Amino acid sequence: MNFRCVQCGHHIKSLYVQYSPGNIRLMKCQNCRAVADEYIECEIMILLIDLILHKAKAYRHLFYNKFDPEAMNFERLMLKLTFGFLVLDAYRISILLANNEDSDSNPSLASLIWGCGKILLDAFVGNLLFIIILLLGTRSLLNMSSEVSRYKNIWLAILASSYLKLFLLAMMVWEFPSSVIFIIDIFVLSSNTLALNVLSESAMGKCFGVCLCAHIVKFLVSLALNIHLANLITL
Fold first, then answer.
1. pTM for this one?
2. What's the confidence (pLDDT) of residue 2?
3. CA proximity to 152, closest of 63, 55, 71, 65
4. How far apart are CA 179 and CA 174, in angstroms?
5. Closest CA to 93 of 223, 234, 211
6. What average pLDDT is seen over the chain?
């Protein structure tokens, strides 16, 4: 596994030396002379807090020192994360549609099927174009290699850095204005940018531009689909 120092991103052969079960010594980075990865001895809550605070070292630990494609079922993990990502996005779309449209206390079966179809179509098409723009942007603007494994790592980083979508589940319990959804979207955008920056080691401005373009295309596609479907209803 290709370990990295969480402080400077320098390659390192091993993160710690184990003398006996429960007795380890953390290795220091030869480049910055700091402890290569202090998260090994930290609680998971410390890592989660640092991820929310957008600390680059937490993302380096997650992507380089935590995920091991050779030791884990990489394809299965990506499928699970992609499914969860689409479900959360579909829930986000359903909240926006419910706020924009007049709610019917006794909807018919046809209206329920039509509503579910709109949500699924929006989630599928919007995220499909989101992935395409994101991967094309990373190849052209960030000059990354076109290897399939590299694209898989990028998509995994985007999925993992979209964890803030989980805050949408709080809207099942408590009532929030729809503006909270757009605040979550901004945090997801910033988290995606930092994840892409850590993984690609490109300039932050370029990474922000790639992620922003992908999110804007996704928003415009969603808007165009809603307008087109609304026109079909009025015909």
1. 0.86
2. 78
3. 63
4. 14
5. 223
6. 85
